[in-house]
């Protein structure tokens, strides 16, 4: 295969544009003899004559023009590569992979991706739904660059492998059947619901969150039914089979029918805390920093909506 030397091709292109070896040497801060030597070597590498004498000057041969026609495409591609690399270094291009638990995807990740696609279209965000255990395995293995989880299931702040970034304190509301005696009760507290049958997962994060919230309010919840999806949970609440705690961040998923009343708890309202984590030191990378900023912006917007 013919050897193509980019530096020598740039000298040939400059000669075409400047017209003389002397002008080419001045433009490239070289000596005329160095220009001539480089072009002679290029001709040997390509196996064709590139220059021919024309009085005291030289002119490019047809072969030289053919070479430059193809070289221009190479130069254009290198310019695009330089621009893309520059964007990558500024955090405006490249790919970044995010793992997030189910309710965080529509509530935080999707708004962040929308904002980034407008502001930095060269930044390609790839999203993978994963609960905490899997998300941190992926982060440790380098298969994702950022993980969203509940703080209770994130690595310790003392873990040297990760840096944690707080994002959101998400309130938990209670779902009651429409005809429940406490559906319209003023100042409803979690402790008022101690004798109720509860619906939550048999194990995993949501089971732990529900039991921890109830225990903090002074009672152990009686689990009447077990479910992990909001559709199933709210269908059972609507049917009067029990009550459930529902994260406000899951508003897109928690819409029950007319038979479900969502109540904001007073005084002892539980919250779950959402954090982002990256491999320690990665938060200083420009692309990661842009994604974290977009996630914080999405979280702030959600908190503003929740307060209104």
TrEMBL record:
<dbReference type="Pfam" id="PF00126">
    <property type="entry name" value="HTH_1"/>
</dbReference>
<dbReference type="InterPro" id="IPR036388">
    <property type="entry name" value="WH-like_DNA-bd_sf"/>
</dbReference>
<dbReference type="InterPro" id="IPR005119">
    <property type="entry name" value="LysR_subst-bd"/>
</dbReference>
<dbReference type="GO" id="GO:0003677">
    <property type="term" value="F:DNA binding"/>
</dbReference>
<protein>
    <submittedName>
        <fullName>LysR family transcriptional regulator</fullName>
    </submittedName>
</protein>
<dbReference type="GO" id="GO:0003700">
    <property type="term" value="F:DNA-binding transcription factor activity"/>
</dbReference>
<dbReference type="GO" id="GO:0032993">
    <property type="term" value="C:protein-DNA complex"/>
</dbReference>
<dbReference type="Pfam" id="PF03466">
    <property type="entry name" value="LysR_substrate"/>
</dbReference>
<dbReference type="InterPro" id="IPR036390">
    <property type="entry name" value="WH_DNA-bd_sf"/>
</dbReference>
<feature type="domain" description="HTH lysR-type">
    <location>
        <begin position="4"/>
        <end position="61"/>
    </location>
</feature>
<keyword id="KW-0238">DNA-binding</keyword>
<keyword id="KW-0804">Transcription</keyword>
<comment type="similarity">
    <text>Belongs to the LysR transcriptional regulatory family.</text>
</comment>
<keyword id="KW-0805">Transcription regulation</keyword>
<dbReference type="InterPro" id="IPR000847">
    <property type="entry name" value="LysR_HTH_N"/>
</dbReference>
């Amino acid at each position: 295969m013919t050897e193509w030397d980019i530096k020598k091709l740039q000298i040939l292109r400059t000669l075409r544009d400047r017209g003389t070896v002397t002008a080419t040497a001045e433009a490239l801060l070289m000596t005329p003899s160095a220009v001539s030597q480089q072009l002679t070597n290029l001709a040997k590498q390509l196996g064709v004559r590139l220059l021919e004498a024309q009085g005291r000057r030289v002119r490019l041969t047809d072969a030289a023009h053919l070479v430059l026609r193809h070289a221009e495409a190479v130069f254009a591609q290198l310019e695009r590569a330089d621009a893309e690399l520059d964007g990558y270094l500024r955090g405006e291009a490249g790919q970044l992979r995010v793992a997030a638990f189910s309710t965080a995807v529509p509530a935080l990740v999707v708004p962040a991706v929308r904002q980034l696609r407008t502001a930095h279209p060269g930044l390609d965000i790839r999203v993978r739904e994963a609960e905490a255990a899997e998300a941190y395995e992926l982060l440790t293995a380098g298969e994702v660059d950022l993980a969203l989880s509940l703080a209770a299931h994130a690595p310790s702040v003392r873990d040297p492998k990760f840096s944690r970034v707080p994002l959101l304190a998400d309130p938990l509301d209670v779902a009651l059947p429409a005809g429940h005696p406490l559906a319209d009760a003023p100042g409803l507290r979690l402790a008022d619901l101690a004798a109720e049958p509860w619906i939550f997962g048999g194990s995993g994060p949501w089971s732990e969150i529900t039991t921890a919230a109830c225990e903090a309010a002074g009672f152990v919840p009686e689990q009447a039914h077990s479910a992990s999806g909001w559709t199933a949970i709210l269908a059972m609440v609507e049917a009067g089979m029990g009550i459930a705690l529902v994260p406000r961040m899951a508003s897109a998923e928690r819409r029950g029918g007319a038979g479900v009343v969502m109540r904001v708890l007073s005084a002892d309202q539980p919250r779950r805390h959402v954090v982002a984590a990256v491999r320690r030191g990665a938060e200083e990378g420009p692309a990661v920093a842009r994604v974290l900023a977009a996630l914080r912006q999405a979280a702030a917007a959600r908190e503003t909506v929740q307060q209104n």
